[in-house]
Amino acid sequence: MTTPRPAILLFRNDLRLSDHPALTVAAAGGKPVICLYVNDPDAPDPIGRAQLWWLHHSLAALGRQIADLSGQLVLRAGKTRDVLGDVIRATGADAVHWSRRYTPNAIAADTALKAHLNDRGIHVESHAGRYLFEPWQIATKAGTPFRVFTPFWRSCLAQLDAAPAPLPAPDASFMRDLPSETLEGWGGLPTRPNWAAGFGSLWTPGEAGAMARLDSFLDKRAQGYAQGRDFPAATNVSNLSPHLQMGEITPRQILASLRRAEVLGDVGQRDGAKFLAEVGWRDFSAYLLYHNPTLPLEEFQPKFAPFPWRDDAKDLTAWQRGQTGYPIVDAGMRELLQTGTMHNRVRMIVASFLIKHLRINWRAGLSWFHDTLLDADVASNAASWQWVAGCGADAAPYFRIFNPITQATKFDPDGTYIRQWVPEIAALPDKYLGAPWKAPSAVLQAAHVTLGMTYPHPIVDHARARTAALAAFEGLSASAENVAIGDG
Ligand SMILES: Cc1cc2nc3c(=O)[nH]c(=O)nc-3n(C[C@H](O)[C@H](O)[C@H](O)COP(=O)(O)OP(=O)(O)OC[C@H]3O[C@@H](n4cnc5c(N)ncnc54)[C@H](O)[C@@H]3O)c2cc1C
After folding, report:
1. Is the beta carbon of 271 within 6 A of some atom in ligand 1?
2. Whose CA is nearest to atom 49 of ligand 1?
3. 383 membership: H or E segment, kind and range
4. Is residue 281 among the annotated active site residues?
5. Is 385 a catalytic residue?
6. Over the stretch 354-375, which tens digit does the pLDDT of each residue have?
7. What is the mean pLDDT of residues 311-340?
8. Which Pfam family, giving just one, matches this sequence (predicted)?
9. Could you give all domains of the chain from N- to C-terminal order, each with its CATH number?
């Protein structure tokens, strides 16, 4: 009996072995599997610096997992098509499998790669796995894409129970002893300065870390999620987003574990439904991007495009560094720099502050998040920034301007979150933590706070900034109406 020719599993943002349809099909029929990761300088959607840290550790974890199964994760740098050509020539592989990617850049790259390989007689198959549903599976009765989350999600829920269960890791026969580079040689980790020094104690990249995170969330922290998820000092959120982003865990695995936890009574119906709906927002963001490929670049609602943005490098830097003088904003921006993440409630507050208080283009915020978030995702990042700006699909109305003072009082009532990230004002009484400039000078003195020295004065006045933002947005509506009248 002849040994079948090997198949290549081209890993990208799917760094796991279980519930991996591409791997399962590649290994079917006893075909030897070559596990390949290519560090491609021309990769579509280059990732940011924080995510490079995650990628390094996630690849290391995957490499160990495959080595434990007597295989090898082959690491190669170069253009994907050239590396594949080399590996195919060296091994006689006749098939390439990969998990589908959904951004416009990645779709274009993968379509071209598939045609190139097919022309050379190589079988290429792309597979699902990243989302609950493929973006073309969900549509309105008229067959058009949804633009609003609630009916989109209702349609998903109606089809959820018929969805296939997650796949176990296949019993694959992996190839080994192929030429490979080292992760260290790729230089993905920051050195001088090592701004990621704090990440290692908080995160465990890799499939095992993702599963452990999910289990501990469902065991302990999911109870009370529906309410607790809004409070940045509470521990009710899952912190699964960087794992999901790198494909170390799938939404179907999350769904299956959630259903088990609900049956066991570990997670209540309300908390479970809310958590699943948030996973649904991830699907919805990818769905929006798939059907609206310019989402990261252009306003989803074109009437917002002529907004008179301010170009102010000093204010942008103050926002990025957490030096705006608004403690809840500064806490979030510092949490981001020190941990690679930021709580969702605070992401909304800081994004609203940049767009509406500072009137700085949402694309500047999007690109800072892209570089600094461990979970940076082209679709979720773009959809969320447009949501806050009011120009997205199903977005918050433009006149909803988060008040950073009342948001702090409401969602960080005892100041735990602000005190953790803005320690220089920690000794202030709770009532002044959201707005230190309102504290009498004796109170500031007693707390060792000197505004302008130990902590900044607010860079904008809230009430004036709000009025200016509303005027700018209303100016847009007026000019849109004038265009409409003129057109008529
Ligand atoms: C301005 C802004 C930018 C954002 N950029 C990103 C991004 O680049 N990548 C990213 O994954 N999320 C982004 N989000 C969404 C959200 O803040 C994070 O997904 C969430 O904070 C991750 O924490 P968690 O895993 O503990 O979430 P949980 O509350 O435990 O939710 C579970 C999962 O659901 C998904 N999810 C939750 N909320 C959202 C949401 N609003 N939109 C899309 N998916 C969601 C995530 O995959 C998350 O891991 C952004 C939100 C805002 C306001």
Report:
1. no
2. 241
3. helix 378-389
4. yes
5. yes
6. 999 999 999 999 999 999 999 9
7. 98
8. DNA_photolyase
9. 7-129 (3.40.50.620), 131-166+206-291 (1.25.40.80), 302-479 (1.10.579.10)
